[in-house]
Amino acid sequence: MNLQNFKFETDSDGVALLTWDMRDRSMNVITLEVMAELEQVVDAVVADAAIKGCVIASGKESFSGGADLTMLEGFSRQFAQMLKTDGEEKANQAFFDGSRKLSQLYRKLETCGKPFAAAINGVCLGGAFELALACHYRVVSDNEKTRVGLPEVKIGLFPGAGGTTRVSRLMQTGDALQMLFKGDQMRPQQAKTMGLVHEIAPVADIVAKAKAWIVAGGKGVAPWDAKDWRPPSGRVYSPAGMMTWPAANAIYRRETMDNYPAVKAILHCVYEGLQLPMDLALRVESRWFAKILRSKEAAAMIRSLFVSMGDLNKGARRPKNVPPSKIKKVGVLGAGFMGASIGYVTAGAGVEVVLIDRDQAAADKGKQLSHKLMTEQINRGRARTADRDALLARITATPDYAALADCDLIVEAVFEDRAVKADVTKKAEAFMRSDAIFASNTSTLPITSLAENFSRQDDFIGIHFFSPVERMMLVEVILGKKTGDRALAMALDFVRAIRKTPIVVNDTRGFYANRCVLNYIREGHIMLDEGVPPAMIETTARMAGMPVGPLSLNDEVGVDLGWKIVQATKNDLGAAAVDPREERILDALYNKNQRMGRKNGKGFYDYPEKAPKKLWPGLADLQSVKLDPDTLDVEELKQRFLTTQANEAARTVEEGVVTDPREADVGSILGFGFAPCTGGTLSYIDGMGAKAFVAQCERLAAKYGPRFTPCKLVVEMAEKGETFYGRFAPGKAA
């Protein structure tokens, strides 16, 4: 065998060890070359009577992250080419055959007659875990970093190399569907409890344990290939089955609003597959996989949530002329909720933190948040007491600015008030190293003006976190007019160190994410004023693909904050910059009814202590007109929510605030949940075409007002037949 990606050896017991170790990659991934070599190994194991079985392990810290998705994108490109040259029938057949090769390879391994065992350490996800599931025995390490799972659904796909079919044969149907729908990664014990792996062992012992199973007579027959096998939940058409499937369909509808074809395909694969023999079930799964792989949702989500996000996480926007920085200590000014949360995620990444506030009590209170959050992790079994102690030891809470003397980076996170920010900036600069970078965590105030309070403006940058910091994955890095490359490089290094995804934007009011999401919230306010039933506003927003409705989102960020933003906009830009309908709604809630949102238990919703939230009945009294829901166009309501955000995103590109479509799309999904099924704000426009988007904007503008007027850039693109990813491709001048 000529193996480039594996090492193959056989021991004295006749057990082969296949070590997966790709030379030029830090992580093993499944490629066409890997597939070809794995097939060679299966054939060699079968052909050699002296080999009892084979263990598959990794020569790296992790087993594998799964398939190289560029391989799947290649199938789509080949299909498009064949469609032109060979016709639809041949193109479809070639696409189907190519997309199921991995599934067929795994089935060949599973039915070869020799036992295969997987020895798993570290990450084993997606197609790699499907390989493990095709093996007859699975041993995982007790390593803290070991995770297994099938996360394909998060990028618009599903486990189409046999994963869906095998999981539904290993577990109760309801549990299998829940696992496949969520796509979560599992720790070793959870995976064992669920029946997905057989044994947990120390890292040093996993290969030996896997070999021992083969030597002890482990059989090369999967459970579903045995004559006496029965589905874990019984037959689909049975009393138990009828308790499962109506509920599963309802949960699918509730959670996806029918926006995610891959999730629907999972339902089909499991429902149809459990009624068929294994080989036919796999063929059904392959047909659904080929269909989903060609869907516009999968293409958009793969590009934004895998390719683009991977590029940004690896430093696509980092200045190449600045050497990497090793950030050892970070100062955080302000130990309020935001500052304390920044301190928590920073310390969690192994970086020393100096948490400063006006007095010791305030600083200690901020540090207490880290204790609380770590305790919650301990209670959920996700951390140990020792982890909490170590994290807290990395945080120094103090009112003394002199403690900033050896910090590499300072993050200011005090109240959104220019005077307060100016004061702490000057206090910090008095003690900072001359090469330290200063960053302001602001959501509204322009960075260029805040930098005027700092003597080294080229070392001043904006780092905008989203709340809650520990859960939100996006960070906006904002460039002031004088921000230098070194400040940008360190900011991006910091964001990467704390395992967040950065987007780089130029300075403007509201930056990028807030500009778009405030349009979304405003549209909800305007609909309420128009007389649209509140429940319909919330539901149609979710039907459009948003994670929560605009009224619920306003409660989360604070009705009081919404009111203050409207007033600040009015003061800075004039009354014409504010929609009077939105102002009236916020005035009625905040000023007249003291409803501030979730923070005081009452906003657009009521928040009973031990009951689910409910829309406030008093919202009906704010509506002078009440529209009949049966007369409203649901599709149009959905379009209003997405169009107002996408048009604003396009406007930020027009103004030069956002310069890379990858950042607009990734930022919109991670920052404010813009319908992930579309691939993000700009992919939404590209997906329907600029011409169709302009027509949609003009129709909505004619009916609902000038806020829907398409921005000049999109109009120009429509005339030229351009797309954002064509005109603004990375490295291409606009």
Summarize the topology:
Layout: E1 6-10, E2 15-20, E3 29-30, H1 32-47, E4 53-58, E5 66-67, H2 69-85, H3 88-99, H4 101-110, E6 116-120, E7 123-125, H5 127-134, E8 137-141, E9 147-149, H6 163-170, H7 173-182, E10 185-186, H8 188-193, E11 199-201, H9 206-215, H10 239-256, H11 261-273, H12 278-293, H13 296-313, E12 329-333, H14 337-348, E13 352-356, H15 360-379, H16 385-393, E14 395-398, E15 409-412, H17 418-429, E16 437-440, H18 447-450, E17 460-465, E18 474-479, H19 485-497, E19 501-506, H20 513-530, H21 534-543, H22 550-557, H23 559-573, H24 580-591, E20 605-606, E21 614-615, H25 634-654, H26 661-672, H27 681-688, H28 690-704, H29 712-720, H30 724-727
Parallel strand pairs: 2-4, 3-5, 4-6, 6-8, 7-9, 8-11, 12-13, 12-15, 13-14, 15-16, 16-17, 18-19
Antiparallel strand pairs: 1-2, 9-10, 17-18, 20-21
Helix pairs in contact: 1-4, 2-3, 4-5, 6-7, 7-11, 10-11, 11-12, 13-26, 14-15, 15-16, 20-22, 20-24, 20-25, 20-26, 21-25, 23-24, 25-27, 25-28, 27-28, 28-29
Short overview:
By secondary structure, the protein is of the alpha/beta class. It has 30 helices and 21 strands. The mean pLDDT is 95.
Structural summary, described in words:
It is a single chain. This protein is of the alpha/beta class and 734 residues long. The chain has 3 domains: 6-69 and 102-272, 2-enoyl-CoA Hydratase, Chain A, domain 1, CATH 3.90.226; 329-508, NAD(P)-binding Rossmann-like Domain (Rossmann fold), CATH 3.40.50.720; 514-727, N-(1-d-carboxylethyl)-l-norvaline Dehydrogenase, domain 2 (Orthogonal Bundle). Helices cover 50% and strands 12% of the residues. The chain contains 30 helices and 21 strands. The strands form 5 sheets. The chain has an 8-stranded mixed beta sheet with strand order 14-13-12-15-16-17-18-19, with helices on both faces. A hairpin with a 7-residue loop joins strand 20 (605-606) and strand 21 (614-615). Helix 25 (634-654) crosses helix 28.
